[in-house]
């Protein structure tokens, strides 16, 4: 009697299945899952807690897709208080200087893992330095153009993307450029930590209200710095994170 054996496809919870739809089940992948975002002016709230829960659930499912997959987690903290519309960024009243991260670190520990924290103030400073170098060599960076005091990105999705402004001798990055900087930082981290993984994914859980700025930032990164084997999955959700929407992008989408 011949016994036939079949491989069983890993079970992925329905809520996170769309977030992992493009992750290979036959090759090793490195993933950074970002959740838990909060603003220091408001503190850790419902979206922060629920989006981190979603991120941890996504990472655990990703590990089951292939036993060689590597997953790390990050929380973005908006310590600038910056809120962006299409052309203007505003700063509300300052919040507390520090926020107790224990609710988030405890959730990660309970899931048997840990997380890192990325602060937007650090990203803004890095983005400003990088843009100053680009402005000195405009021929090397044709997707950015200076128009008076404005630094514009030549988007294929939006009529106008304000990447930054020049004030005196300083570059002041706007939200899309700061977002692009955290994607650059994330993928550099994955490349350095997991060079043997065939694919790299950043799965970024965001509030629906942030859709424009993170989509603009993803386009900036993917068209200016990304490798062909890198993918950004932009995830948008309400405060409950019950029905997240996942939109995967690579450089080929632009």
UniProtKB/TrEMBL annotation:
Top-level taxon of the source organism: Bacteria
Protein's name in the database: Uncharacterized protein
Organism: Streptomyces narbonensis
